[in-house]
């Protein structure tokens, strides 16, 4: 018997048992359907736990804790099922890359699942890309793959890199991130004899230093100022790859600056027929298709949202 709003209600135990039987049958059917479709399999065992005054079937290992302030439910992750699912997506081994590219991944045995899925478009094509993935998913390595592709296109037959034939521009929205990326790329690309330098409001480079640098890491505001100046045309003409980190900031107060940079880059491509590849990196975006269209990412195969 349950009291609710000063009224008493009888609970039919037989009806409760029938409901549990129906629920159990439904879960078994879902489990069978999941196996047939090769998706995540449902948990094989369930436990009935009290949740908000009702019994709920939750995966085995789940716990319920109630207090005067809240009700806490802990559901363990389906580790075994994740392993089965991820087995469908093989990870690319670093030793399968070109020999010079392996140098940049020294100490790493393989790419992760997301990087492996993007690899073909990032390294084997010159297509514009939009990569949407959570923080910590390894977008930096994806950016590195696109840089290595640019380097590969500027190598001679004997494997020597023509360092004066290209520039890579990496836009980072924060100075701290710019410093971090500069350190990361300096370490990895330095093994190939390439230089990475930071150019932000707190750091200045001479014209000679810029000429000697292959990868420039800047804030959007700094690159916006540079590309507006006619006396920096020599630098703009050498750009072959533009990587925009945190491109979802198009919706932020700094969006107009990023938008102007992209529009100016697209104009160079259309008017001067300059080969510039645009790669956008972002956290998960709800309207990634709109951003992809703006970046001239021409097909869904070149837009990745994880």
CATH topology annotation of the largest domain: Rossmann fold
- What proportion of the residues is helical, as a percent range? 40-55%
Count of individual beta strands: 13
- The proportion of residues in beta strands is 15-25%
> Cα distance, first to last residue?
48 Å
**Any idea what the shape is?**
elongated
The average pLDDT value, as a whole number, equals 84
Backbone CA Rg: 27 Å
Structural class: alpha/beta
Low-confidence stretches: 1-9, 34-44
**Strand numbers in spatial order across the main sheet:** 9-10-8-11-12-7-13
Number of separate helices: 11
Sheet with most strands: 7 strands, parallel
Secondary-structure element sequence?
EEHEEEEHHHEHEHEHEHHEHEHE
CATH class of the largest domain: Alpha Beta
Count of discrete structural domains = 2
In CATH, the homologous superfamily of the largest domain goes by the name: P-loop containing nucleotide triphosphate hydrolases
Give the name of the CATH architecture of the largest domain: 3-Layer(aba) Sandwich
GO molecular function: ATP binding; helicase activity; hydrolase activity; nucleic acid binding
InterPro entries: DEAD/DEAH_box_helicase_dom, Hel308_SKI2-like, Helicase_ATP-bd, P-loop_NTPase
Protein name: Helicase ATP-binding domain-containing protein
Organism: Meloidogyne enterolobii
């Amino acid at each position: 018997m349950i009291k609710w709003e000063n009224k008493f209600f009888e609970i039919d135990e037989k009806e409760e048992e029938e409901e549990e039987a129906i629920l159990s049958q439904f879960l078994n059917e879902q489990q069978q359907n999941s196996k047939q479709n090769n998706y995540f399999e449902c948990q094989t065992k369930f436990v009935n736990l009290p949740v908000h005054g009702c019994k709920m079937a939750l995966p085995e290992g789940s716990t319920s804790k109630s207090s005067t302030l809240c009700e806490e439910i802990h559901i363990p992750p389906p580790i075994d099922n994740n392993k089965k699912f991820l087995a469908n997506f093989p990870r690319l081994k670093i030793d399968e890359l070109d020999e010079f590219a392996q140098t940049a991944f020294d100490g790493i045995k393989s790419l992760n699942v997301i990087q492996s899925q993007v690899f073909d478009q990032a390294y084997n094509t010159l297509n514009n890309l939009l990569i949407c993935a959570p923080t910590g998913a390894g977008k930096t390595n994806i950016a590195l793959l696109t840089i290595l592709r640019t380097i590969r296109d500027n190598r001679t037959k004997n494997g020597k890199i023509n360092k004066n034939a290209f520039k890579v521009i990496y836009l980072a929205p924060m100075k701290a991130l710019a410093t971090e990326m500069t350190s990361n790329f300096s370490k990895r690309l330095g093994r190939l004899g390439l230089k990475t330098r930071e150019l932000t409001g707190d750091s200045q480079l001479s014209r000679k230093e810029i000429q000697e640098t292959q990868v420039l890491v800047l804030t959007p505001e700094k690159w916006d100022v540079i590309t507006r100046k006619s006396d920096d045309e020599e630098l703009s003409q050498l750009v072959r790859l533009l990587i925009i980190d945190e491109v979802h900031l198009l919706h932020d107060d700094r969006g107009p600056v990023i938008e102007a940079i992209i529009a100016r880059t697209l104009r160079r491509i259309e008017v001067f027929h300059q080969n510039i590849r645009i790669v956008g990196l972002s956290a998960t975006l709800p309207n990634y298709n709109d951003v992809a269209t703006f970046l001239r990412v021409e097909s869904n195969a070149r837009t990745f949202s994880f």
